[in-house]
From TrEMBL, chains A, B:
Boundaries of every Acetyl-CoA dehydrogenase-like C-terminal domain copy: 462-580
Alphabetized Pfam families for the sequence: Acyl-CoA_dh_1, Acyl-CoA_dh_C, Acyl-CoA_dh_M, Acyl-CoA_dh_N
Domain Acyl-CoA dehydrogenase/oxidase N-terminal: 46-156
Record-linked Gene3D superfamilies: Acyl-CoA dehydrogenase/oxidase, N-terminal domain, Butyryl-CoA Dehydrogenase, subunit A, domain 2, Butyryl-CoA Dehydrogenase, subunit A, domain 3
InterPro entries, sorted: Acyl-CoA_dh-like_C_dom, Acyl-CoA_Oxase/DH_mid-dom, Acyl-CoA_Oxase/DH_mid-dom_sf, AcylCo_DH-like_C, AcylCo_DH/oxidase_C, AcylCoA_DH/ox_N, AcylCoA_DH/ox_N_sf, AcylCoA_DH/oxidase_NM_dom_sf
Residue ranges occupied by any Acyl-CoA dehydrogenase/oxidase C-terminal domain in the UniProt entry: 282-445
Organism: Pleionea mediterranea
Function: Involved in the assimilation of dimethylsulphoniopropionate (DMSP), an important compound in the fixation of carbon in marine phytoplankton, by mediating the conversion of 3-(methylthio)propanoyl-CoA (MMPA-CoA) to 3-(methylthio)acryloyl-CoA (MTA-CoA).
EC number: 1.3.99.41
Protein name from the UniProt record: 3-methylmercaptopropionyl-CoA dehydrogenase
Family statement: Belongs to the acyl-CoA dehydrogenase family.
Keywords annotated in UniProt: FAD, Flavoprotein, Oxidoreductase
Length: 585, 585
């Protein structure tokens, strides 16, 4: 069973739904780009994903990573694939052109990321972490650091890792203990233990550049006393060649539910030499400038895995003859004819296609935030990115996991055995709900920082844009869709008021409904993105138009009603739950 | 982290909520039993589950079953545990007393099953399949077959398997191909390949008795041409000793997402000697007499795994210090203080406690169906069992998987690594949504055979009982709960009308909403069982009363609202989805 990257749908989003080049008007970095170039990148990305990464996926899961001494070995074929990945220039496609990056827009990059995650999530995590490290370094590193490290990282010759978590310090980074002591030459001695470090050690790149959070001796307690350091695995000589091994060693790797070919390391820093990135005690802020991109990357893990699950389940359903067709009443039909199988497949596709659309929209806003010359555009984009990132991260990965499980269910017993690969997609998808901030943390970020903090201003601004699309639809063939969306939108608008009021009256108890609120908002945004796609669908072939229509109807009829359940629950409030004595929970 | 079987809650259900002995009044087989005996059984079961099975669970998952030649080896410790299981008399607790079974009620047996699944699902599947085979043999086997096999099976000295699925024939048994050719002595030669055979081969019992579906030479096509045969691994001599090896061999075992210590075998029957059970061509009917019990058993896998996940997650949450307490605003609180963690834990507990209640209720109805002397009681019980079995199987296992995933989420990254065991519970739980009839098949069974076939009569009878409880609550402290339940009940009553009408007008398209309908009904039944528990809660300690109240409030405020989402989706209908050309799905 094969995976085909959905290049046509991706092109449709970039050009017809969002017309990103139009949005990028005036941004010099993107002026020489056009849709032909974007399509060529997508086509090449598809080839790499389908032909190089996908065939390594199952075996990589079976073999996993091996840890011996200080070394970690990746599964057979990974090293060669990584070589090709670097040679193809994939590491730096969204990277800073000043240091060898290709400077292509995030709106395009997210689509490439989707393909990579779909075809081989474990593999893709290595370059994803490198890209995150590059972003932080590019934004906050000194020129010397950038000159020494960034080009080799953006080419993938050296990879990167992000060292945040410690055994006692996960979601709460404020209590981390790793120490940084100044050396005389301006560098630092970094000591401490970091856990859950993706790509912390492996055998694919010549060097690994760790970005590490640690405390300076004079650091205030809590999150405002954390600084960010660059700690290379091998020291870099003045001529750029590799020098001594820096004492940062992999103590063990985790044995996990999934992403088994991605090394998840315990790293021990034993007075390893490091270099400060950005200001002292401002490490968390530096880290968070790249966190939006990292969260969006992980969000795409959910989209990619849901899509590959859909594709395999769809192929299986067509070939599996079982039972009487409930459509035509005849014996010996494929299970694609069964109402419940159709429900699961359309559920998968209809969510995946709006998640993909939101990824492009969010990527485009990251681009506008970074590059727009017009200050209003830039600021609006920044607000939109802040608002939508936690939604994308949590919703894409929650719905991704749900849809991977639909995929298993379509295959029945065959979905549960390893041979078919569906269960691997679900296992690989499960972690995305946890790392880069659990989905509970995302929801809390949304309601506390992104909605209550500005009293609903940014989300109202989004709702206004949704209303604008509804207005546009009023003299189209999709007027009825707009009418339905309007109804759901008003429910979610009311929820914003409810949340703000609960926040006033009940304080943090309100956060009990955060996950449901995030979902309710996400389903309305999905409805909006379906409407936007329908309004642009005359650019599609007749078959593709019909497929879009089918998926959007399913979404409106059967998934948007979930909003009603979330709304009732949120209105009931979590004050009772919150007030309970611990022993009653 | 330890598992404690919830013995007190189980006693409360048996005695105070359902007063099963009162219900069993007049059933001679149960007259000598009392609550002291039931409690003693539960206490002993708890010891066995907690001390013998639970410690083997994680290592069993790591080691898995090994296949070599024709043999399958279970993980270290399983054989000894199985020995103790048999010596404790656990195999036959619900078995036919005429052949060494203890004849204890199913209402009690389900609770023991929950403990066993919670502590070690892989192990528990072996005796569960044996119990299923015993039921079918007891109900349909000839006296000679019963005398030869049943006592050794009910003691567990010999185990059983159920051989239904073939490579091309899963949910659709009507197309199976295995053949049975008559021998001159009245036995048959069985040939064919069976897959997904749980406990089809292992090293724990002296003999394995396979119940096998196959076709006689003169069999009509389809499901009415299938007969049931008993095929022993070792032939049994006239004196009861074991004779020759029968040619039924394990060709391979599956590598699965979970239940790795449960052997899932490909069995090749090569003219193996078998004996007809029941009438020729009536094999499916024979099989289905025990299917309700098997489905309920698998349902309990969902309950047990959700409960053990809750217990571990609850312990972890109390010990894990992380972040500011959103309850008390102070730094350094346990994550149990976080609103979202409370939401997940209460979600787990509030569903588990109503699923457990429904299991007892359903078990009690199985007992009444089998043993009640009053024909009306018996027939009502039979209708209730038919109606509730698919609901229990699908809802317990779907919510079980959801809740195991909540458990992972509470632990964050630690939930995803194998060390803590939470991810194993989720992997082990995932199969329960698939085997013994996928949950989609359960939902189809519910809407087609159990609701539409009698035009809603049986489900209306259930709704009347629910209304009766609401009436009882009207002069209690829980009147408001009854009022809320009434409201949800009316929504679900309307859904029955909607379904019946869709069935008339749209035919099989209606089945697209089957899973949602099943869930909506299940949540209302849950609300009923919460009300019943509250009405009986004065028998509890003050702390336990408060815990019941907390969980029931959570359930009503935050889980029952889901009904509204299902209702809207069902009312929108699946006729559009159903009518789509295949290429649009």
């Amino acid at each position: 069973m094969s995976y085909k990257a959905p290049v046509d749908d991706m092109s449709f989003l970039l050009k017809n739904v969002f017309d990103v080049q139009q949005q990028f008007d005036g941004i010099s970095q993107y002026q020489d780009f056009d849709y032909d170039l974007y399509n060529a990148v997508l086509e090449e990305g598809a080839k790499f994903a389908e032909n190089i990464l996908y065939p390594l996926n199952r075996d990589g899961d079976e073999e996993g990573c091996q840890h011996e001494g200080h070394d970690v070995t990746t599964p057979k074929g990974f090293k060669e694939a990584y070589q090709q990945f670097c040679e193809g220039g994939w590491q730096g496609i969204n990277g800073d052109p000043e240091y060898g990056g290709q400077g292509l827009p995030k709106a395009l990059h997210v689509l490439v990321e989707e393909m990579l995650y779909a075809s081989n999530t474990s593999f893709t995590l290595y370059p994803s972490l490198t890209a995150g490290a590059c972003s932080a370094l590019a934004a906050h590193g000194s020129d010397v650091l950038k000159q020494t490290y960034l080009e080799n990282m953006q080419s993938g010759v050296w990879s990167g890792s992000m060292c945040l978590t410690e055994p006692h310090s996960g979601s709460d980074l404020g209590i981390l203990k790793s120490k940084a002591e100044p050396n005389e030459d301006g560098s630092y001695k970094i000591s401490g233990t970091k856990i859950f470090i993706t790509g912390g050690e492996h055998d694919m790149a010549d060097n690994i550049i760790h970005l590490v959070l640690a405390r300076l001796p004079d650091a205030p307690k809590g999150p405002r006393g954390i600084s960010l350091f660059l700690v290379p695995k091998f020291m870099v000589n003045d001529d750029g060649s590799l020098g001594e091994r820096n004492p940062v060693f992999c103590g063990s790797i985790e044995h996990k539910m999934g992403i088994k070919a991605s090394s998840t390391c315990v790293l021990n820093f034993d007075e390893a030499t490091g270099y400060l990135i950005g200001e002292p005690h401002r490490g968390l802020a530096c880290m968070f400038t790249m966190m939006n991109k990292e969260r969006l990357s992980i969000a795409l893990q959910g989209v990619g895995l849901a899509d590959v699950s859909y594709q395999i389940a769809r192929q299986y359903a067509e070939e599996r003859i079982q039972g009487r067709s409930s459509r035509e009443g005849k014996q010996g039909a494929s299970i694609l004819e069964h109402a419940d199988v159709r429900r699961m497949l359309l559920s998968m596709r209809s969510v995946t296609e709006i998640n993909r659309a939101l990824a492009v929209y969010l990527g485009m806003n990251i681009d506008l935030d970074e590059h727009a010359t017009d200050i209003e555009t830039k600021q609006k984009a920044a607000r939109r990115v802040a608002l939508l990132t936690p939604i994308a991260k949590a919703f894409f990965t929650d719905s991704g996991f749900e849809n991977c499980n639909h995929g298993i269910q379509v295959l029945g017993g065959h979905g549960y055995v390893r041979e078919w690969g569906l269960e691997q997609f679900a296992r690989d998808a499960r972690i995305a709900q946890i790392y880069e901030g659990t989905n509970g943390i995302q929801a809390q970020d949304l309601v506390v920082r992104k909605v209550c903090a500005d009293k609903g201003a940014a989300i109202t601004e989004l709702f206004d844009d949704i209303s604008e699309t509804i207005k546009q639809s009023s003299d189209s063939d999709f007027k009825h869709v707009g009418v339905s969306l309007e109804k759901h939108l008003s429910v979610v608008k009311e929820l914003v008021s409810v949340l703000l009021q609960q926040n006033e009256e009940q304080g943090a108890a309100m956060q009990g409904g955060a996950v449901e609120f995030l979902n309710a908002v996400a389903y309305v945004i999905g409805g909006w993105l379906w409407l936007k796609q329908l309004l642009a669908s005359n650019a599609l072939t007749e078959l593709e138009q019909k497929r879009k229509l089918a998926a959007s109807e399913f979404y409106y009829d059967h998934l948007m009603p979930r909003i009603e359940g979330y709304a009732q629950s949120i209105k009931n409030g979590y004050h009772l739950t919150f007030a309970l004595d611990d022993e009653l929970v």
